[in-house]
């Protein structure tokens, strides 16, 4: 049972999932995010995923690798992933440490992330978890 605010919110918008990370996540929380997103891609038949990391002021190598893993797992389930909101200091540190996003597309913010997906993902009817 959680006693504080949610660490991550996963919202559905049309056929996309938007995961907003609200605070730094430890390794087990990153794994939970990965599992939740991959499960929800199938449940909602999502074809696009946006992971918003704007609230993060640090991203370690495990976090960066997990984001890349999420994107690959999503791709295998038929969804394109884009990471948005990487802060300038985080980007600088990632470059200095030789970390990257393993080819996962990035965008400045949520608006640009949605535009990126809209330009690349074929639209299909929105369906609920039971096909409604």
TrEMBL record:
<dbReference type="InterPro" id="IPR036513">
    <property type="entry name" value="STAS_dom_sf"/>
</dbReference>
<protein>
    <submittedName>
        <fullName>STAS domain-containing protein</fullName>
    </submittedName>
</protein>
<dbReference type="InterPro" id="IPR051932">
    <property type="entry name" value="Bact_StressResp_Reg"/>
</dbReference>
<dbReference type="Pfam" id="PF01740">
    <property type="entry name" value="STAS"/>
</dbReference>
<dbReference type="InterPro" id="IPR002645">
    <property type="entry name" value="STAS_dom"/>
</dbReference>
<feature type="domain" description="STAS">
    <location>
        <begin position="6"/>
        <end position="117"/>
    </location>
</feature>
């Amino acid at each position: 049972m959680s006693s504080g605010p949610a660490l991550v919110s996963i919202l559905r918008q049309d056929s996309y999932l938007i995961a907003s990370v609200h605070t730094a996540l430890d390794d087990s929380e990153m794994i939970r995010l990965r599992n939740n997103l991959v499960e929800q891609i199938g449940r909602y038949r999502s074809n696009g995923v946006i992971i918003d990391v704007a609230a993060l002021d640090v991203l370690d190598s495990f976090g960066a690798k997990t984001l890349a893993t999420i994107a690959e797992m999503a791709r295998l389930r038929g969804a394109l992933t884009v990471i948005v909101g990487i802060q300038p200091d985080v980007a600088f540190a990632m470059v200095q440490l030789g970390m990257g996003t393993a080819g996962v597309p990035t965008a400045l913010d949520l608006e640009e992330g949605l535009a990126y997906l809209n330009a690349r993902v074929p639209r299909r009817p929105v369906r609920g978890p039971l096909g409604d």
